[in-house]
Write a structure and sequence with these properties.
Length: 98
C-alpha cells in the first residue's frame, strides 16, 4: 500500500467515525426552553418550543410540583432528543428587577 492509498483509507475511516459520532450525539437526551401555551388538565400542558412559537408540543406531562400558567417559561427534557418523548421538569422563574 503506497502512502497516497493509505491516506485515502485513513481519511475514509475518519469520515466513518465522524458519522457514527454525529448519529450518537443526535440521540442524546437534551433540554429545551419552552413557553406554556395552555393547560390541558392538571398534569398536562401544550407548550411552544422557543424561539419558534409555531411549533407546539401537545400534552406534555408536568413532572414539577408547580402549577403552571399560560405564558410561563419551562424546560422540557427530551429523552433520546425526541419531542414526542418529553416532559416538563423545571419552571424558569422570572428575574425580579427593582
Amino acid at each position: 500500500m503506497d502512502n497516497t492509498n493509505g491516506n485515502r483509507v485513513a481519511g475514509e475511516l475518519v469520515d466513518v467515525v465522524r458519522e457514527i459520532v454525529r448519529q450518537e450525539i443526535s440521540n442524546l437526551d437534551r433540554t429545551v426552553l419552552c413557553q406554556v401555551k395552555q393547560k390541558v388538565d392538571d398534569y398536562h400542558y401544550d407548550v411552544y418550543v422557543l424561539p419558534d412559537t409555531s411549533t407546539v408540543i401537545k400534552n406534555v406531562t408536568n413532572m414539577t410540583n408547580v402549577t403552571l400558567q399560560e405564558g410561563d417559561y419551562v424546560y422540557i427534557f427530551k429523552i433520546n432528543n425526541q419531542l414526542s418523548n418529553s416532559f416538563i421538569f423545571y419552571k424558569k422563574m422570572p428575574f425580579i428587577v427593582k
